[in-house]
Amino acid sequence: MELGKLPPQVLEELVLRPIRYNEKKREDVVLRPKTGEDCSAVDPQGEYILLSTDPITGADADAGYLAVHVNCNDIFAGGGEPIGILLTVLLPQSAQMEVLHEIMDGAREAAAEVGIEILGGHTEVTDAVNRPLVSAAVIGKTSGKHLLSTGGAKEGQDVVMTKWAGLEGTAILANTYAAELSSLLPVQTAASAKEWKSYFSVGKEAKIALQHGATAMHDATEGGIFGAVWEMADCSGTGVVLFEEAIPVPPQTRQICDIFSISPYELISSGCLVVATEQGEALVKKLKEAGIAAAVIGKITKSGRTLLQNGVERPLEEPKKDALYRIKTDRLQK
């Protein structure tokens, strides 16, 4: 592929046509993407508009799929409903057309799952990257003017998490290092970890938590579950006690993390929602009744951020570089 913007014919065939085939068409989208159109437009009719953006830098496989879900999760965690997403796809000269097809196919699949439209974006071949880079910006709206922030946790509330620590990171590692892991893990273990992408959305549990009365929600992305809980307490101006033994970690994640000598609690965990709420056990019960794994993993306190490990209190530290990137850094240095 040549440097610069994609030719109109390629743009139409591999980017815009898949977008137009998107299964979901929303009434509040009034201007849709086409060649030469710089903007899309939505008519929110009085609700709060929510906006968020995130790149996908830690995964090659499923980058388009992840970009949609990771960005939409921020809207869900804010108490909103995603409407549409803008994608920026930067490709190196070495990329083949099949790579772009895979990115857009994954993005379209995820958009259909969430119920949003792909509103447009930008696609370019550039020597500024050495592998595909997908960045996205998502727009969403609230119901009326009800907005939830990460900083809404209150002293005395329970901290609830959904699903499992290291969810996204496990899937990325299982894909990226499939050949290496195949000789170290049972085939079914690595295969099941690679198929976890169906758990990456937090939309369903966010709605249940809102109905229960959650005052703060946060999607556990880079920095993992430890980082997400620390950020919630920091945004809220509170303390927190986190119970490490209560944090659910699947055996597949533990096995893969042991191989790479990393902590599952510091591994990117998109799909895991952290919630501050009264009556945490009652929320866990509602989530489990809806088929969503959940657990009470901590307590919001007035001050101090601590981690309870085997009955011993340790400081809950400010988030470090995600374990996923520590693996890549260590391997580049060898």
Describe the 3D structure.
The chain is 37% helix and 24% strand. It is α+β, with helices and mostly antiparallel strands and 334 residues long. It has two domains: 138 residues, PurM-like, N-terminal domain (60s Ribosomal Protein L30, Chain: A, 2-Layer Sandwich); 184 residues, Alpha-Beta Complex (Phosphoribosyl-aminoimidazole Synthetase, Chain A, domain 2). A seven-stranded mixed β-sheet has the order 9-11-8-12-10-13-14, with helices on both faces. Strand 13 and strand 14 form a beta hairpin.
List the helices and strands and how they pair.
Blueprint: E1 4-5, H1 8-20, E2 29-31, E3 41-42, E4 49-56, H2 63-77, E5 81-91, H3 97-114, E6 117-125, E7 133-141, E8 158-162, H4 167-176, H5 178-182, H6 187-194, H7 203-212, E9 216-219, H8 224-236, E10 239-243, H9 251-260, E11 273-277, H10 280-289, E12 294-301, E13 305-309, E14 312-315, H11 323-333
